[in-house]
UniProtKB/TrEMBL annotation:
SUPFAM superfamilies: Pectin lyase-like (SSF51126). Keywords: Calcium, Glycoprotein, Lyase, Metal-binding, Signal. Its EC number is 4.2.2.2. This is Pectate lyase.
Length: 459
């Protein structure tokens, strides 16, 4: 056992060292001075990427589909396997909630029926599914209430502001005293173990740059609007309680996930960012993007930025229960390397294509609804870039129980289950649950985007 442990440690050290060497020329990511502080954060982040990577991702996709099927069976919307599902559940009696809360998807059903959600906010951290399922955000920390919508000082953030809260070097569950529009002056750099929880208020983030999650772990962003994000001009910006540094011009992403792991983005409404809405790059993994609404944008999501960033082979992302809405063009998402589980999303608009990629990503599309645009050249859901058929025919892009309308079609390649050759399935084989079909997507995504939660009432 000691020898095996030593070999594993040597492998991890070698992989990290090689990855750092490969990434060094391009890893700056708006850090003008890559000092000892950022070097250490980068090294730590690379190790977390390896730790967060699941070598049997089929376990995760099955876990997601099982819980979603269980939630649907409790509402009588399923296919008659309710007794079997309960047999492999926790064994506890499931309490029914009245009204529309019985028809929610598995993530929402976990918390939204509780009229005392405002007193039980941290219950949210128990509800994430998918590759980001271990994300707890600021659950271990205190509540911090944002009372000031200003963003004046970048080096010495004013207590009570969002910038002050996200740069603290301790876990925090961040809430808001009232509805507010926060116009950022520059990118908002978030530290480890944070939940940004906009429930109970109408929170709009706008202005010069968006959220930067760089070499961090364990962040939840929930129930906020992100819109009209511009490019930040950089400058001296605080990135933690104990450190600040010179930043170069930022791209204008709504949320930039860079070398980070265990991230959950849920019930976010996004519109018009200068660059991407959500980018996950440079070894980011263990991410779930759910229940969100996207409109008015060209390049929506980019997972993996450069062909030479081979660390993105460890990237694993779940995209679930989202609505890709009006005036979108492409990249929902666009992937390099990694494994992406795209499940039960509603694609009602695109201009060029919905899902694309290169460098042999694995894309598992399950139970989505795809409504093609009227343009004949844009009916295909998928787009494989910079590779001939002889190369991409072996890429594992699979469609299962998707619902295609207006001539939409998905081009499969590779072979089913090739992404996980010998998984240890946590669900007994006789109860294997298929994904919910795309015909149910309208109900599963009906509340995508921000919610109008009010204390004392079910959300």
């Amino acid at each position: 056992m000691a020898v095996a442990h030593l070999n594993l440690g040597s492998y991890v050290f070698a992989f990290v060292s090689l990855s750092l060497a490969v990434l060094a020329p391009s890893v700056q990511a708006h850090i003008a001075a890559f000092d000892e502080y950022w070097t250490q954060r980068q090294t730590d982040a690379m190790r977390r990427t390896l730790e967060a990577y699941d070598p049997n991702p089929l376990n995760v996709t099955d876990h997601f589909n099982y819980h979603n099927a269980l939630a649907m069976e409790e509402t009588g919307m399923g296919n008659g396997t309710r007794r079997d599902l309960r047999q492999i559940g926790s064994g506890r009696k499931i309490l029914k909630r009245g009204g529309r809360y019985q028809s929610l998807n598995a993530i929402d059903k976990c918390w939204r029926g509780d009229k005392n959600w405002a007193k039980n906010r941290k219950k949210l951290a128990d509800c994430v599914l998918g590759f980001g399922r271990k994300t707890t955000g600021g659950k271990a920390g205190e509540f911090y209430t944002v009372t000031d919508a200003s963003d004046i000082s970048l080096l010495d953030p004013k207590p009570g502001t969002l910038r002050y809260a996200v740069t603290r070097d301790r876990p925090l569950w961040i809430i808001f005293a009232r509805s507010m529009v926060i116009k950022l002056q520059q990118e908002l750099i978030v530290t480890h173990d944070k939940t940004i929880d906009g429930r109970g208020a109408n929170i709009h983030i706008t202005g010069g740059a968006g959220f930067t999650l760089q070499f961090v772990k364990n962040v939840i962003i929930h129930n906020i609007h992100i819109k009209n994000i511009g490019r930040g001009f950089g400058g001296m910006i605080r990135d933690s309680e104990t450190h600040f540094g010179l930043r170069t011009k930022s791209d204008g992403d709504g949320i930039n996930i860079f070398g980070s792991s265990n991230i959950w983005i849920d019930h976010v409404s996004m519109t018009h960012c200068s660059d991407g809405m959500i980018d996950a790059i440079m070894g980011s993994t263990a991410i779930t993007i759910s229940n969100s609404h996207f409109t008015d944008h060209d390049e929506v999501m980019l997972f993996g930025a450069k062909d030479e960033d081979v660390i993105d082979k460890k990237m694993q992302i779940t995209v679930a229960f989202n609505h890709f809405g009006k005036r979108l063009v492409q990249r929902m998402p666009r992937c390099r390397y990694g494994m992406i589980h795209v499940v039960n999303n509603d694609y009602t608009h695109w201009k060029m294509y919905a899902i694309g990629g290169n460098m042999n990503p694995t894309i598992i599309s399950q139970g989505n609804r795809f409504i093609a645009p009227p343009l004949e050249d844009s009916k295909q859901v998928t787009k494989r870039e910079y590779a001939p058929y002889t190369e991409w025919k072996s890429w594992n892009w699979q469609s299962e129980r998707d619902y295609f309308l207006n001539g939409a079609y998905f081009v499969n390649s590779g072979r089913s289950n090739a992404w996980s050759s010998a998984p240890k399935n946590p669900i007994p084989g006789q109860f294997a649950i298929r994904p919910q079909p795309g015909t149910k997507v309208r109900r599963l995504t009906k509340d995508a985007g921000t919610l109008g939660c009010k204390p004392g009432k079910s959300c």
